[in-house]
C-alpha cells in the first residue's frame, strides 16, 4: 500500500440471488459478494487507485469466495483474517420486479460480527491516503464498534484523513442506540457521506428534512467535506467551505443496490488522486449511474475509460 491508497475494513458477505421471481422458484442462482466497505474498495480499485480491505471471513467456501472476488478486482486482502470458529455471513436476494428486491441476511454469530480492535490493520492505516469506515460496522457488535473507534484513533494520530459513510440500517439497531455512536464518528471524520433518510439517527430533528439544513448541521459537527446523498436526484455537498449541487446522469435504473457505495467510491478515488472538488462530485455521480444500470452491488462499477465514455455521451 502507498500513502495514496484506500484502507477500509468491515463485514463482507456471500450473496446468492435470483434475477427474477422468488428464490423458492429458482432453478439456479447467481453467486457473488456484498458488503459496503468491500464495494467501495472494488470501486476505488477499478478507478486505478490502490485499495485494501480487511475484516473477518469464515474458514469456509463463502469466505474463500469473498477473498477471491476481492483479489480478482485488484483489492489487497492480505490483512483480512480467516476465523476458524464462525461462518461467513450470507445474503439471499430475489427480484420481485425491476424496481423491487428482497434481501434476507444471515449474519448472527458470523465472522464479521466478531471483528475486534485487535483485527484492525494499524500499519496499513498509518500508511493510507484515507481510512474509510461506515456506520454499518459498529452496529454489528460491541467489539466491532470498538474496532471502528480504535481505527479512527490510529488514523487521527497519524494525520490520515478519515472518511465516514453513515450507512444506517434500522434492522441492526434503533435510532436512539445509534445516535451517540454516529455523531461521535461524524465529529471525528474529515469526509462524511449521509442520506436525508438518516437524519433521525444523526440527531437532526428538523421536519421536513431539507438537504441544505442537514448539510449545515453535519458541517457544523466538524468535517470539512460533507456530502448529502439524494439518490436519483444527485447530492448536495459542502467541500472546504464551498457548496456544490452534484449532478445526475440520465440512465435507466435497474438495481439501486450498491448505488451509494459506488458514489462514495468515485468520490474517494478522485480525492486520493488529487482531483479538485468539482471533479470529485462529478465522478461520484457518474459511478452511481453505472452502478444502477446493472444488477448487483458492485458489478457495474466503472473504470476510467468508461467514465470518459459517459462524459462524452452527455
Automatic annotation (TrEMBL):
Family affiliation: Belongs to the carbohydrate kinase PfkB family.
Organism per entry: Saccharomonospora amisosensis
Recorded GO MF terms: 2-dehydro-3-deoxygluconokinase activity; ATP binding
Keyword Nucleotide-binding: yes
CDD domains, sorted: KdgK (cd01166)
Keywords: ATP-binding, Kinase, Nucleotide-binding, Transferase
One Pfam family per UniProt: PfkB
PROSITE patterns per record: PFKB_KINASES_2
Xref: Gene3D superfamilies: 3.40.1190.20
InterPro entries recorded: Carboh/pur_kinase_PfkB_CS (IPR002173), PfkB_Carbo_kinase (IPR050306), PfkB_dom (IPR011611), Ribokinase-like (IPR029056)
Domain Carbohydrate kinase PfkB: from-to ranges: 7-302
Protein name: 2-dehydro-3-deoxygluconokinase
Enzyme Commission identifier(s): 2.7.1.45
Amino acid at each position: 500500500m502507498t500513502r495514496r491508497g484506500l484502507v477500509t475494513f468491515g463485514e463482507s458477505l456471500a450473496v446468492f440471488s435470483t434475477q427474477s421471481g422468488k428464490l423458492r422458484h429458482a432453478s439456479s442462482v447467481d453467486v457473488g459478494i456484498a458488503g459496503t466497505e468491500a464495494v467501495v474498495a472494488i470501486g476505488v480499485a477499478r478507478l486505478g487507485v490502490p485499495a485494501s480491505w480487511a475484516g473477518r471471513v469464515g474458514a469456509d467456501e463463502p469466505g474463500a469466495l469473498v477473498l477471491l472476488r476481492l483479489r480478482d478486482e485488484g483489492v489487497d486482502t492480505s490483512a483480512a483474517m480467516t476465523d476458524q470458529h464462525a461462518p461467513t455471513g450470507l445474503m439471499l436476494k430475489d427480484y420481485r420486479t425491476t424496481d423491487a428486491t428482497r434481501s434476507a441476511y444471515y449474519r448472527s454469530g458470523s465472522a464479521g460480527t466478531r471483528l475486534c480492535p485487535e483485527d484492525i490493520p494499524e500499519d496499513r492505516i498509518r500508511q493510507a491516503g484515507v481510512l474509510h469506515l461506515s456506520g454499518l460496522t459498529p452496529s454489528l457488535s460491541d467489539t466491532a464498534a470498538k474496532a471502528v473507534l480504535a481505527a479512527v484513533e490510529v488514523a487521527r494520530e497519524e494525520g490520515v484523513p478519515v472518511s465516514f459513510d453513515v450507512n444506517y440500517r434500522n434492522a441492526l439497531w434503533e435510532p436512539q442506540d445509534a445516535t451517540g455512536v454516529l455523531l461521535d464518528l461524524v465529529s471525528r471524520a474529515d469526509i462524511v457521506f449521509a442520506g436525508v433518510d438518516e437524519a433521525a439517527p444523526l440527531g437532526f430533528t428538523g421536519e421536513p428534512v431539507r438537504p441544505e439544513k442537514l448539510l449545515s448541521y453535519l458541517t457544523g459537527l466538524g468535517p470539512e467535506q460533507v456530502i448529502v446523498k439524494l439518490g436519483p436526484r444527485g447530492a448536495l455537498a459542502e467541500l472546504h467551505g464551498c457548496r456544490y449541487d452534484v449532478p445526475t446522469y440520465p440512465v435507466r435504473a435497474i438495481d439501486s443496490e450498491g448505488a451509494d457505495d459506488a458514489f462514495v467510491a468515485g468520490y474517494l478515488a478522485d480525492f486520493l488522486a488529487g482531483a479538485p472538488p468539482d471533479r470529485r462530485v462529478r465522478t461520484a455521480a457518474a459511478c452511481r449511474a453505472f452502478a444502477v444500470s446493472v444488477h448487483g452491488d458492485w458489478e457495474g462499477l466503472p473504470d476510467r475509460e468508461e467514465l470518459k465514455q459517459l462524459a462524452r455521451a452527455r
